[in-house]
Amino acid sequence: MKKSLFLLLSGLQCLAQNFTNGSLENWDIPCSVDQAPYGWTQNSTTSSGLEKYELDVCPFTVVAASDGDKYGGGLGIGTSQGEGIGQFVTGFTIGTTYVLTFDFIGGYYIDDPLLGYAQWHIIQGVTDVSQTVPFYHHDANWQTHQYVFTATLPSYFFTFRVYAVSDDILGSGGIDNFNIQPLLSLPSHMGNTMELVPNPVRQQSFIMLRYPVKDASLEVYNALGQCVRKTTGISGGTVPFDRGSLNSGIYFIKLLDDFSVTCAAKIVVE
Asked: Which of 26, 57, 83, 161 is the most buried (most CB within 10 A)?
C-alpha cells in the first residue's frame, strides 16, 4: 500500500513546489561522512551531522529505506541538541493549504543504556511547528508523519532534526521520503487531522477527525515515550476517548489508519 501511495503522490508532484531530492537517493558519499545529500544542507545543533544509511552498504544499517535505497540517520542529545538537515522551498501560493509528509523509524539497533526515545521535529523558519510521536531507537517499522499548514509566505526553510524526549538520554532516528502537496489535490486520507475535544481531559473527550477512518488503531504514549494504551478496530469520524486509568499529565496520542498514515496530537489529562 505504501509503494502504491507513493506512486500516486509522485504523479501529483507537478501541482506544487516540492523538495529537491526528497527520496535522498542522490547522496553519493561514503558512509559515516557528515555531508548533506544533494539539494539539502546540514542543519544540526551538534558538532556532527546527519549520516547516510544504506542497507548492505553502510555499517549498522539493518533496515531498508522506505523509498529507494538510502535514508538519513541522526542522533539527538537531550532535548536541545540534535542532528538534522534542511532545505529552502519556494513556490508556495499564499492562502493555499499544504500537507508535508515524511517517513521515520528508529535509527540504532545496538543495545546502549544511554539510548532511549526520540522524536523528529519540523522547524519551519525558526519555529518548531510539528513533532512525530516518540519512538524507540530499536523501532524497525517505518511510520509516516504529516504536518498540515496554510502558506502565508511564498517560500520557507524547513529543518528536520531529531531530539531525545528528555535531557538525560540520547535518541536516534532514521528519516526518508519527504513530500509537500496541496491538501485538496491529495486523496482525503492523506489530509486527515485530529483534535481532542475537550482538551484537557477530565473523564471523557472525543477525537474529532477531518475524515472518517476504518479499522484504525489508537496508541497513547506518556511523556517518556512509553506506550500505555492501545486500541484497535477504530472506525468513524468521532471517536470517544475515556481517561480510564491514565494519571494526570501530558500524553501523546497516535492514530494509524488503514492507509498507514499517522495522525498525532498532544493531550493533557487533569
From this structure: 83
pTM greater than the 0.70 cutoff? no
Name the domain boundary from 185, 202, 219: 185
In 122-159, which positions are buried (b, 16+ CB within 10 angstroms) versus exposed (e)? bbbeeeeebbbbbbbbebeebbbbbbbbebeeeebebb
Domain range spanning residue 260? 192-269
- Whether omega before 187 lies within 30 degrees of 0, making that bond cis, reads no
Of 19, 191, 186, nearest to 90 (Cα)?
Answer: 19
- Asked if 268 and 201 touch (Cβ cutoff 8 Å), the reply is yes
- Tell me how crowded residue 95 is: count the other CB atoms within 10 A of its CB: 8
Torsion angle (degrees, nearest 10) of CA 159, 163, 167, 171: -160
